[in-house]
Write a structure and sequence with these properties.
globular; SpoVA; transmembrane; Stage V sporulation protein AE
């Protein structure tokens, strides 16, 4: 049953993104930014963690989880270091994922000939 809920919740998040593309004619950048902000807002109200508990990977894999990670990192570090912790916490939590994307993107660009 866990797999079914993960599939449904992840699918709903993807459908929302696709509707933003098709109906509202938003660019990929606008769509991604909006989904990150939605995830951050839900995390700020404590709702995204409940969604993760319910849907597992269906909530942790989509881009909305990045917004959740930013807020969680900011909140954790703000308790330790105050206002400076808000800024550093966001980068501390998400830096490994961002670094991996940059490194693997560079490796892919070196291994494969880009079109264009």
């Amino acid at each position: 049953m866990v797999f079914l809920w993960a599939f449904i919740v992840g699918g709903i998040i993807c459908v929302i993104g696709q509707i933003m593309f098709d109906v509202f004619k938003l660019t990929p950048g606008h769509t991604l930014s909006t989904l990150v902000v939605i995830g951050a807002i839900l995390a700020g109200f404590g709702l995204y963690e409940k969604l993760i508990d319910f849907a597992g990977a269906g909530a942790t894999v989509p881009i909305t989880s990045f917004g959740n990670s930013l807020v969680q990192g900011a909140m954790q570090e703000s308790k330790k270091h105050g206002l400076i912790g808000v800024i550093t916490g966001m980068f501390e939590i998400t830096s490994s994922g961002i670094s991996s994307a940059i490194i693997f993107g560079m490796i892919g660009a070196l291994l494969f000939k880009p079109k264009g």
